[in-house]
Each structure stands twice: as structure tokens, then as C-alpha cells.
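re: ur question from yesterday

yeah so i grabbed the chain u mentioned. its 295 aa long if i counted rite. heres the sequnce exactly as i have it in my notes:
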Amino acid sequence: MTEVFGVPLLALLGQLLLGLVNGSFYALLSLGLAIIFGMLNIINFAHGAFYMMGAFAAWMLLAYFDVSYFSAMILAPVLVGTVGILMERLLLKRLHRLDPLYGLLLTFGLALILEGLFLNQFGVSGETYDVPDALGGAIDLGFMGVPKYRLWVVGVSTLVCLATWLVIEKTRLGSYLRAATENPQLTQAFGINVPLLVMLTYGFGVGLAALAGVMAAPIFQVSPLMGSNLIIVVFAVVVIGGMGSILGAILSGLALGVVEGLTKVYYPEASATVVFVIMAIVLILRPAGLFGKES
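ran it thru and got these C-alpha cells back, copy pasting raw so excuse formatting
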């Protein structure tokens, strides 16, 4: 069997695929975080809780209403995004002009509350969500079989990330969002409804987290703790890419997922910490992140 630096090729390719899948989730989650911070200046620590709520929304839609996976990919982000909008209108809008630390503390408290509610209702064991029949099985590449669902996750995540980047960077709506971030008073004076933009932006960022949760449900156990186990890594990804950088969030998420997968092959003991080691190196060499702007 062919080996690469002492590791069987099939094992290496399998870990690369797994790393790319994890990187897809990192990219989607860090994209939502980057949008919320870049546009609203809020460090949204509740992002992991919204990711968990997206997975539970898909599970409950199937268990109680027999809603299919593909319908849940639309409904769950809308439902969870609506919850996020209500939180922004009732709580977070009062903190827009304050130090981002206040938003961090508030969203951290909200994350604990949401996680506690789901733990009380569902316990720690979690629920299972089957892969949809249309995406079951694997594609035979001759030298290895690739699960269709994992390819689906990578493809959908990449398309959503690219579409979001194009909207923000290349469209009139994106220019309005950037203008509202730079100078909300002047933007409001030109007749643009800045509070509405802020509200919808937060809802969209939360919806991205929920979409990641829906796609994670057939791969991981749907558990109240699934968000808290992931959010610290995602924050590290955002810091590496550059706080508020859309492109940095996408590229860093995908790349670090692959790096994590390679580390599991060659040095498994470091796989849980490699992202944080990279974060420390990046902060030493470039404090603003790889794609961030120096203040």
C-alpha cells in the first residue's frame, strides 16, 4: 500500500476528508461570528448555542412534524434566526454603543441559559438524526469510498460561504451594510433604515450557525453540549482569520480543519491544541489576524 511520510494513503485521505468536513463547520460558524462582529461590533458568545438550537430544530421538526431534512435546512435557520432577532431587539441593541466586552458578557450569559434549558429538557445523552435517504451511501472512487453526505456538507458550506462573501463585498446591499458599520448616522441620513439592517444582519449570522447545526445533526449526536464543545475553536479560527474579516473567516475555517485532520494522522496528541498554537503564533506575528486590518 502506498504511504505518505510513513502513513497509508487511504488513512491520510480519510483524515483529510474528515478535516475538510470539520473545516466546513468552522467556516460557516466563524463566518456568522465575523459578520456579527464586523457589522455590529458584538462578540457573540451565544453562537454555539444557536448552532445547537439549529440541530435540535431539525430533530424536533422531524420527530414532531415529520418535516424532512431538506425542508429543515430552510425552516431551522429561519426559526433560530427569529430567536436571534428577538434577542437583538430586546437586549443587544442597548449595548451597540458600549464596549464589546458588555456584549460578550451578555451573550455568554444567554448561551448558558439556552444550554441549561435544553439540558433540563433533553438531558446530556442527546438525540440521533439519521442521514437522509437521498444522501445515504458512498461514492466509490476506486481506491476509497467517500460518504455522499460528507461531500454534501462540504459543497453546501462552500457555496453558502462564497454566496455570502459575494453579497457583502459585491452588491449594493453589502455596500449599505458596510456603510452602516462605518458611519450609521450618515447612512441613516441618506434614508437607509440602519436599525433594520442591524437586526437582519444579526438574524442572518445566527441563521448561519443554525444551518451548520442542521448539517451537523446527522454526523454528530444532537446534544445540548454540542455548541459549547465547538465554540472555543471557532473563536480561535475567527481570531486567526482576523476579527470581522469575512474572507478570513471562510479561508481560515477550511484551512484549519484540514490542518487539524493532518495533525490527527501525524501527531494525534496535538490535534486538540494545534488550532490554538497557530492562533498564538499568528497573534505574535500579526495581531490583527491574517486578513484583518490593523487599527
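noticed a couple things. The chain is about 70% helix and 5% strand. also The chain has a mean pLDDT of 91.
anyway ttyl
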